[in-house]
C-alpha cells in the first residue's frame, strides 16, 4: 500500500542583516554641533566675508569704471562725427532757457547734438532723450532727482559734462575744433560733479576748469575714487586723477582745459 504524503510549501523567509554591535562607550544619541563649534563656524564665515567683500566691491567699481570708459569713447566719437558734419564746429554745453529767467542755461545740449551719432533713435529734442537709457549715463553718477524735471534738458543729464569754459557754452559761443592746438591734452567731455553739500543743481552737467573748480573747494571730480574719465579732442579717453587735472602743466593751472598753449 502506498501512503500519500501531502507536502506544504513554506515561502522562504526574508534574510535579515544582523545588527552590528555598538562600539563600547558610544552613545546611541545622534551627534550635533556644540555651541562652541557653532560659534567657531560663524566666526570663520564672518572672517571670509570680511576678506571677500572688499575685493568684490573693488571688482564692482572696476566694472563701473570700464563701462564709463566705454561711454566716454562713444561720446568722443559722437563729438568728432558732429564736427565733421558741422563745418568743424564743436557741440556746446547748453541752451538758453528763458522759462527759468534771464541768463539761465539748460544743460545737456551737447547730448542732443551728438545723439544722432550714438543712438539708434536719433533724438532731435530733449523729451526724446533719457540719458540713463543711452550711453551717456555714468553707472556711478547720482542721477535721480539731480536736476528738476521742469528744467528743459533734464532728461539728458547722465553725470557727464562739457568743457564749457573753453569749447562753447551756448550756440552763440560755439567754437571750431581748429582752435585746439594741443588735442591730446585738451578735454572736451568727462565725468562731472555729483549732487552734494554746497553744489547747486545748475552746476551739474558741466566741466569746470580748476580755476573755477577750486573756488569753492568742494567742486572736485573724484567720482571714480581719485578722478574721472575724460574724452580728449584727439578722440582718446583716459581715466585721469583730479590731482593731475587740477595741477595743470607748464605753469598753467587750466592746461588740460584750455585749447592752446
* Strand arrangement across the biggest beta sheet: 3-4-5-6
The span between the termini is 138 Å
Q: Helicity range of the residues?
A: 25-40%
Regarding quaternary structure, how should these chains be classified? single chain
Tell me about the biggest sheet? 4 strands, antiparallel
Please tell me what the overall shape is.
elongated
N-to-C order of helices and strands = HEEHEHEHEEH
Strand content: 5-15%
SS-based class: alpha+beta
Question: Tally of extended strands?
Answer: 6
Q: How are the SSEs placed, and which strands pair?
A:
Layout: H1 35-85, E1 95-96, E2 105-106, H2 109-118, E3 160-162, H3 164-167, E4 187-191, H4 210-213, E5 227-232, E6 237-241, H5 242-247
Antiparallel strand pairs: 1-2, 3-4, 4-5, 5-6
Helix pairs in contact: 1-2
